Each structure stands twice: as C-alpha cells, then as structure tokens.
C-alpha cells in the first residue's frame, strides 16, 4: 500500500465516519508495534513523531526506519511530524520524506499563528504534503489542564482554516495532552459547532483512555484523527515495571519483547475503539 498524505487518509475517514489513530513512536519497538497492529487489523495509520523528542532520540535514524516501514506496509500510512514548533524541525521532516507536518502555533497570538501556519502550508503544499494546524489551547503535559476559556471558537476556526488553507485542524474542546490527573469534561456541543464552521477534518490531541462511547461521540461530531502519544510511553513503563517485578533477572532483550507486546495490546484497543478496522481493504 502506498505512502500517502494526511489529507488522503482523513478524507476517507470523514467519508466513512471513523477516526484514524495518530500514534507517535519514539524507538524501534514502538514503531514495530504500531505498524504491525495496523497491518493485522487492516487499518489506515498516521505514524508520527513529535519535535520535542528530537533531543532524546536519534531522529535521523528513526525517521529513516519509519519511512522504510511505511513504504513496505500493506496499509496506507501517512508519516507525520507532530507539534512542529520550529522551521528547522519542519524542514527536517520534509527532507526525511514525511508526507505531513503539523505546525503548532496555538500558544501564539492569532495573527502570528495564522501567518506562520500559512507560510508552512504554502511550502508544504508546493511539495504535495499535508499540513495540520492547531487553534485553541490544549492542556499540556505534567498534569496542567486546559481551562474552559481555551476551547476553540467556531468563527475563529473558520477564519483560521480559510486564511491558512490547512488540511486538518486540531481543536481544543476541554481535553489535555499528556498524563493528566483526571479525565476532562469534553464540550461535545462546541465540537459540533466547530465541525459545521470549517471544511476540513478535525483532530483530537490528548485522546488517551476515553470510553469507546466517547470516541464514537467525537467521531460523529467531526473528529477524523485521534492522537495517542504519552499513553504509549506510560504503557511501556507500566509493562516494564510489571515484568521486572515478576522476573527481576530478566535481560534487556526479553524486556524489549515484553514491552513491545504491551504497546501492541494498547494500540489494538485504541484502533478497535476508533472503528477504523478493515478500512484499508
């Protein structure tokens, strides 16, 4: 199956009313886990890495492996830079052969966010790549939650999409990135208003550990991609701790296999909840 753009994948997701998982990987074990489950379940996939991880991993090597895995895969895969904040990071992803980039200017004043996102979109579109933008602050890592005032507004979203010409929009509806203290209360009515106001697929960041019925509600309200990132890291950590408690003398090679299986089990549950199974057929 061909390496595809984010726009291609999300167009089908909206047409057939399902969500694609946007899974961020951070090493070879998580890369293999995500791609193998996608192939097993025959689901389209957005395979990503966040710019903030560049300082922790050998991104040039990992990006090359991601590209190879996507090219060999039996399912459609978009390679995606998640939460790109710098021109340098975005250009790296383009040089690696990624088919999609996200520019996250959500912390900037609106006009500056529009200007920078528009510039990135112009470059990406000239190369046949897709762009995701973000509007409305989404709570960040380390338990700092979004406030009610951070919810994206429909009129502003419509202007943002029209002026930037992005292919997908990440919106804030009261949810959070990362490992938060408690599950947020989502503003479903506002999400429906946002979907009616714009003409591009919507993206939900911080989509971990929701109930299957909640995923169906956000999909019905226009969400076409649900990002899973921090939870994969948490699952890997929890699996590692559990295995070491049972088998303290485990060697590293066996631990890698156990962690990969734990991540695969988690990814499988998410994909089943997103109703994207067999959509790659």
UniProtKB/TrEMBL annotation:
Binding-site list for Zn(2+) 1: 83, 177, 205
An annotated GO BP: carbohydrate metabolic process
Binding residues annotated for dihydroxyacetone phosphate, in chain numbering: 178, 206-208, 227-230
Organism: Anaerosporomusa subterranea
Binding-site list for Zn(2+) 2: 104, 134
Annotated active site: 82 (proton donor)
Cofactor(s) required for function per UniProt: Zn(2+)
InterPro entries in UniProt: Aldolase_TIM (IPR013785), Class_II_FBP_aldolase (IPR050246), FBA_II (IPR000771)
Superkingdom classification of source: Bacteria
Protein name per its UniProtKB record: Fructose-bisphosphate aldolase
UniProt keyword Zinc present: yes
